[in-house]
UniProtKB/TrEMBL annotation:
Protein name stated in the entry: Antitoxin component YwqK of the YwqJK toxin-antitoxin module
Organism: Flavobacterium quisquiliarum
Keywords: Coiled coil
Coiled coil: 773-800
Origin: domain of life: Bacteria
Length: 803
């Protein structure tokens, strides 16, 4: 048996200078070797299989241990080797577990053994996924790593099977379960520490039960299905136990905290591996509150601190900053006060400064600036002075450095990308003066305080590559003069780049693209007048929005599109209007939401407004007809006439035609429409056509032609305010009241509005043909408020009758 010794950097060395060692010869399985490394104090440091010809190319499960022998990190690699069965061992050489593989993934039986050789648990995988039995781990079954040897062999990575989102059954219906369990044992024992029960019937791993035990086997708690997060696998109500692990066996309790409704609640206790308390923190509704006490490993108090509303309030605190920095600083009544020392992971001091009144006073500090960026600042008498550094994750990987004198930028700013300088810019009196101002995707060039060029890139990388330039804008005396654009292609006029010239900082001649992300187009100008618009079917080109091809041409006249599509972008909607010879032919109303899209199509055709809904393929029609000298609106869905409407005079006469009278406040007057429902049993079709129904009831004007109504509806839907009314819960289109007239031609329920001789209004409230309340001579400005009061009275009366 030969021993190899390594120093802290894993270079071979003598035993006297070693930090790690490795025993040879290795255990061999076919072309694989089992690599086992140890700290110099004989604590395990690593165990895992690798290819014999390259011990850095891992196979199967690999685990690293920290200097105390506890699990530090664990990964599973694909096993494309000829060896389909892998055996792992305890530090004393006894068999620990066996794993079977097929096509790179775990497939077949996995067995965990006690040191005495007896079986602790068995589990079976199929296609890499836990199928039945008991397992060390369940949730990482799809997380395999592909090593260099596999890449070199051009092995094709198997399809990654992603876990779905858990949505728990709120109804509590009985369902057939397929149960697997994750089991964790106390070390050197056959006693369980924790077991979690999962249901895999739905194709996901859904926990529905957890039990925790102490070393003696006493049950500490049982977590049932309703105590897990509704959309996750974490405990929402109960105690969360964390442990010190060695080869996934529990060595000791690491921490415990009670959760209530998904938030930390009560006292969290952290422990040393020897069982003594390390730290105690109190929580209320997820936030640290009150005293925190930290102890030394011998049980003596190391520090006392106070939290308030989850934030440090009083005492000395150790806080992590960015990815590799640690700050020790003092708080007094919630403000940083006194010395703050920043160290990196090696323990070297990288910043030291004094806070006064919660503000950096003198020295160097790491802070979050106003843009939430990490920054190393130099301060004297509360003011930044000298070179400051903005960085991302690591201090030695800056985004930029800049020079400040008494809080004012004066001097050189240097920009970096991956530790390489990408630009330099001189500031004078806090303003850019000479050089390049570089951000992630653009570069602005200054000369003697003025912008001369602004360059935009497709990608934040490869800024030196000409092919990465998207567009360049040129300036003179602070005003734009020209734009050279490579961000699009006009298929009828193919050019490597498209040029537009400005006059007085406004488009004058050539091509000018919008910048709406997915909803882009290009306007073409001649002598300051927009002539054409180039666009495309954006639904067919969503994947090409970074370099769109435009194959549709629209023509402008007097600043308005008269031929071709016109686009109007609203907050959550998009309107496309289609013109021909100055006449609107049709328009599309597109709605966007998370994982949702729908289109409503309106078209003027054959003296009717034809309607079509994209998702459910609903077709409809709105027409106006003269019947007995009266204009009647008709609303049909799928060739079924659902509703008719007509205007109703608001005067001293009570309407007598059966139906629903709706009153609208429009242009400082009250108008009314009578709606008669013809198809009572078509509720589903009405729901599918709700937008069309709202348009019919709210927007149709019986005193205008169908062509005028079509244009009116298009204008309304192109307005952000009117669109919000379509989807909001408030009354739509100025609607203020409603009244139902029954077949006996009498007011049955609702509010009747009559205009009297002095141009005020009489309001009468009805329920079951009986008049409940009357308000006479109400001025127009008070009508809406009085109707709201009458509606409340009607609701109260109906609730009383219901009881």
């Amino acid at each position: 048996m030969e021993t190899l010794y390594f120093d802290a950097n894993w270079k071979t060395t003598s035993k006297e200078n070693a930090s790690f060692y490795r025993m040879q010869p290795f255990k061999k399985l076919g072309n694989l070797i089992l690599v086992e490394d140890f700290y110099i104090n004989k604590t395990p440091q690593f165990q895992g299989y690798a290819f014999q010809d390259n011990e850095d190319n891992y196979v199967g499960d690999v685990v690293w241990f920290d200097q105390d022998g506890f699990d530090a990190s664990f990964y599973q690699f694909y096993n494309f080797s000829p060896v389909s069965n892998l055996t792992y061992y305890y530090p004393n050489g006894k068999k620990f577990k066996t794993v079977q593989y097929k096509n790179g993934r775990k497939d077949g039986e996995t067995i965990l053994y006690h040191e005495d050789g007896t079986v602790l648990m068995k589990g079976k995988y199929e296609g890499g996924k836990p199928k039945n039995g008991d397992f060390e781990e369940v949730l990482n079954w799809e997380d395999y790593r592909l090593n260099k040897a596999d890449n070199e062999a051009q092995k094709e990575e198997p399809i990654r099977m992603m876990e779905g989102v858990i949505i728990r059954d709120e109804i509590g219906n009985a369902k057939k379960r397929e149960v697997i369990k994750k089991k964790i044992f106390w070390i050197n024992s056959k006693q369980l520490a924790q077991e979690i029960w999962y249901d895999i019937a739905s194709g996901t791993t859904e926990p529905f039960k957890q039990i925790n035990y102490d070393k003696s086997g006493k049950m500490l708690q049982t977590i049932n299905e309703n105590d897990f997060e509704k959309y996750g696998r974490e405990i929402s109500n109960g105690i969360v136990y964390d442990y010190y692990f060695q080869n996934k066996f529990v060595v000791a309790l690491k921490s415990k905290i009670t959760y209530k409704n998904g938030q930390k609640n009560g006292e969290e206790t952290l422990y040393y591996p020897n069982g003594k308390v390390l730290k105690m923190v109190k929580y209320a509704q997820g936030e640290a509150q009150g005293d925190q006490i930290e102890y030394n490993s011998d049980g003596t108090i190391k520090a006392k601190r106070i939290y308030k509303n989850g934030q440090p309030f009083e005492g000395n605190f150790d806080e992590r900053f960015a990815s590799d920095l640690f700050i020790n600083q003092n708080y007094s009544k919630g403000l940083k006060e006194g010395e703050a020392i920043v160290k990196d992971e090696s323990g070297s001091i990288v910043a030291k400064g004094i806070y006064k009144d919660g503000k950096p006073f003198n020295g160097t500090f790491v802070i979050k600036n106003e843009n939430e960026q990490n920054e190393l600042i130099n301060v004297a008498d509360y003011k930044k002075n000298g070179v400051q550094k903005i960085f991302d994750y690591y201090l030695d990987d800056p985004i930029k450095t800049y020079t400040v004198v008494n809080d004012i930028k004066n001097g050189e700013t240097v920009f970096y990308d991956n530790r390489e300088i990408t630009g330099k810019l001189e500031y004078k009196n806090d303003l850019p003066y000479d050089g390049d101002l570089v951000t992630a995707k653009n570069r602005t060039i200054y000369k003697k305080g003025n912008i001369t060029e602004e360059i935009f890139y497709r990608s934040e990388y490869d800024k030196k590559d000409e092919n990465n330039i998207q567009k360049t804008i040129y300036f003179e005396n602070g005003k734009r003069t020209k734009i050279v654009n490579k961000s699009f292609l006009i298929t009828s006029d193919r050019q490597d780049s498209y040029v537009g010239t400005y006059k007085n900082d406004k488009p004058f001649s050539g091509y000018f693209a919008t910048n709406f992300n997915e909803f882009n187009h290009v306007d073409y100008y001649e002598n300051g007048i927009v002539k054409y618009q180039y666009s495309n079917n954006y639904l067919e080109n969503l994947e090409k929005y970074q370099y769109p091809n435009y194959n549709i041409k629209s023509t402008y006249k007097d600043g308005k599109i008269v031929d071709g599509p016109e686009y109007i972008k609203l907050d959550r909607q998009f309107v496309s209007k289609y013109w021909k010879n100055g006449i609107l032919q049709s328009f599309d109303f597109d709605i966007f939401a998370m994982h949702y899209f729908n289109r409503y199509h309106f078209e003027l055709k054959n003296k009717a407004i034809e309607l079509e809904e994209f998702n459910k393929k609903v077709k409809g029609k709105i027409v106006l007809e003269k019947i007995n000298g009266k204009t009647i609106g008709k609303f049909s869905i799928n060739n079924k006439l659902l509703v008719t409407s007509s205007s109703v005079e608001v005067n001293s006469a009570i309407p007598t035609e059966p139906g629903s009278v709706l009153y609208y406040e429009i242009n400082n007057t009250i108008e009314a429409k009578l709606f008669t429902t013809l198809e009572e049993d078509n509720d589903e079709e009405r729901r599918d056509a709700e937008i069309f129904s709202t348009v019919f009831s709210s927007y149709l004007n019986h005193n205008k032609t169908i062509e005028e109504n079509f244009n009116l509806i298009a204008d309304k839907i192109s307005s952000e305010k009117d669109v919000e009314l379509l989807f909001g819960n408030e009354l739509k289109g100025g609607l203020i009241a409603g009244l139902r007239i029954n077949e006996a031609k009498k007011p049955e329920i609702g509010t009747l509005i009559l205009k009297n001789s002095n141009n005020s209004y009489d309001l009468k409230l009805f329920l079951k043909e009986k008049k409940l309340m009357e308000k006479d001579s109400v001025e127009l400005k008070n009508v809406k408020t009085e109707i709201e009061n009458l509606t409340k009275l009607l609701e109260q009366k109906m609730n009383q009758d219901f009881k």
